[in-house]
């Protein structure tokens, strides 16, 4: 499906594009080198309304549609993928989950602050022994009077250290399988919650990824998100939206890699002419641009389906699968086109190549996306 963008969507896209390229991009390499969290960028993005993009104005959000959101996210990713991943988890996973499943009191207390960027959000589902199979998680939440007491360790949590609010899933019933998992809203600094090992990553180095350790972490029962036993569904619904966000990040980074490679090809001369004159290279560029456009259209059509309120789960997985694999091909070719210069840090394609690598892994590996897609096709819910 090709999609016609409205004037408003185009206006949002162009506004973020200018901001991202002027303000965010120039310091991205420095942040990558120093693992410096993009706090200032996120503050500016919040001021412009991009940290509560799909939250309705009554909860301090911008009330934008998903199509505008993915266009904005792709522009931020073009400039700095590490900033984009924080924006993506915050908007697509955390704000959306509270908006959809939160009580009115939770929206007043938490969503309003998230939507203006006063708090950053993290979502803690993955554990050391439960990644693709979140049903295997072992974090437990036990009801004790008017509280729940949580124990367990979460791993690879984006923004774990810098988030002000964490949505965490935990087992509230050992035998009820999917329906035995619940979700809780935990403020950073809660007694019994500690930030553990901070990962030293190949890419997205400016975004923090860490363990979260819960040791007798006691929260009031009103911090339960949705009903008891609804946590798996909350996580799956959140991931549907999140996966369109990863497609957007992929499209943004791929476009940045293509633009950098084209620019380099125009300037670089070998055998007495610009290398952009060689047909071998021009055909590679044509393929890169075509694949990026295919990824962009899958991203837009999944977002448009979400906006129409129809089930978009399969399309979100298709967009994520295709776009994340596409950006790995595109960034690898961009490095190749740069020759030796593609292998050194002075040129941004080296960072794009590293940043893209995780896109086929987080928020569901390519293999998980293929399971989701084929389950929809066969309609028989088969796991690995
Ligand atoms: N939206 C809403 N509900 C969903 C859903 C979705 N997209 N997908 C599944 N569910 C519900 C099902 O309806 C079912 O509920 P009922 O028992 O009430 O009918 C329940 O969840 C279990 O569904 P299913 O049997 O399909 O679950 P599986 O355990 O087979 O797992 C996969 C399905 C593998 C797709 C899932 O575990 C998954 O997405 N894994 C990857 C997790 C991931 O992305 N990890 C990275 C985390 S980064 S935060």
Outline:
By secondary structure, the chain is of the alpha+beta class. The chain is built from eleven helices and ten strands.
Layout of strands and helices, then pairs:
Elements: H1 7-24, H2 28-34, H3 39-47, H4 66-79, H5 81-101, H6 104-115, E1 121-124, E2 140-144, E3 147-158, E4 165-171, E5 181-187, E6 193-198, E7 209-220, E8 224-225, H7 231-267, E9 269-270, E10 273-274, H8 279-308, H9 313-337, H10 349-356, H11 366-378
Parallel strand pairs: 1-4
Antiparallel strand pairs: 2-3, 3-7, 4-5, 5-8, 6-7, 9-10
Helix pairs in contact: 1-4, 4-5, 4-7, 4-8, 5-6, 5-7, 7-8, 7-9, 7-10, 8-9, 9-10, 9-11
Bound molecules: coenzyme a persulfide (COS).
Descriptive report:
The protein is of the alpha+beta class and 384 residues long. Helices cover 51% and strands 15% of the residues. The protein has a four-stranded mixed beta sheet with strand order 1-4-5-8. A four-stranded antiparallel beta sheet has the order 2-3-7-6, with helices on one face. Strands 9-10 form a two-stranded antiparallel ribbon. Helix 4 packs antiparallel against helix 5. 51% of the residues are buried. The chain binds coenzyme a persulfide (COS). The site of coenzyme a persulfide (COS) has 24 residues, from helix 7 and helix 11.
Strand order of the largest sheet: 1-4-5-8
**Structural class estimated from helices and strands:** alpha+beta
Largest sheet: 4 strands, mixed
Kindly state the mean pLDDT as a whole number? Answer: 97
């Amino acid at each position: 499906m090709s999609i016609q963008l409205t004037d408003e969507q185009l206006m949002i896209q162009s506004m973020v594009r200018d901001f991202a390229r002027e303000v965010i991009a120039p310091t991205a390499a420095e942040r990558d080198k120093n693992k410096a969290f993009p706090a200032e960028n996120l503050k500016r993005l919040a001021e412009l309304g991009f940290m509560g993009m799909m939250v309705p104005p009554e909860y301090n959000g911008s009330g934008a549609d998903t199509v505008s959101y993915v266009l904005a996210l792709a522009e931020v990713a073009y400039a700095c993928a590490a900033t984009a991943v924080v924006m993506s988890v915050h908007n697509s996973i955390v704000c959306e989950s509270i908006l959809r499943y939160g009580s009115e009191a939770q929206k007043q207390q938490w969503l309003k602050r998230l939507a203006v960027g006063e708090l950053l959000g993290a979502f803690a589902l993955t554990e050391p022994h439960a990644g693709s199979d979140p049903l295997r998680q072992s974090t437990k939440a036990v009801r004790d009077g008017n509280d729940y007491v949580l124990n367990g360790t979460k791993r690879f949590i984006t923004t774990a250290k810098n988030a002000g609010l964490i949505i965490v899933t935990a087992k509230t019933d050992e035998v009820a399988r999917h329906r035995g998992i619940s979700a809780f809203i935990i403020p950073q600094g809660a007694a019994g919650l500690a930030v553990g090992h901070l990962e030293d990553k190949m890419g997205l180095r400016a975004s923090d990824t860490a363990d979260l350790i819960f040791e007798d972490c006691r929260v009031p029962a009103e911090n339960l998100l949705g009903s008891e036993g609804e946590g798996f569904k909350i996580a799956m619904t959140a991931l549907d939206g999140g996966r369109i966000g990863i497609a957007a990040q992929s499209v943004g980074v791929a476009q940045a890699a293509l633009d950098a490679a084209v620019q380099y090809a125009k300037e670089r001369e070998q055998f007495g002419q610009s290398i952009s004159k060689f047909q071998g290279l021009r055909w590679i560029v044509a393929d890169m641009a075509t694949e990026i456009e295919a990824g962009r259209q899958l991203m837009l059509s999944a977002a448009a389906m979400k906006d129409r309120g129809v089930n978009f789960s399969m399309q979100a997985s298709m967009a994520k699968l295709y776009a994340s694999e596409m950006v790995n091909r595109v960034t690898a070719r961009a490095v190749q086109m740069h020759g030796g210069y593609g292998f050194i840090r002075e040129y941004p394609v080296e960072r794009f190549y590293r940043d893209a690598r995780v896109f086929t892994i987080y928020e569901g590996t390519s293999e998980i996306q293929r399971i989701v897609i084929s389950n929809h096709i066969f309609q028989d819910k088969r796991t690995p």
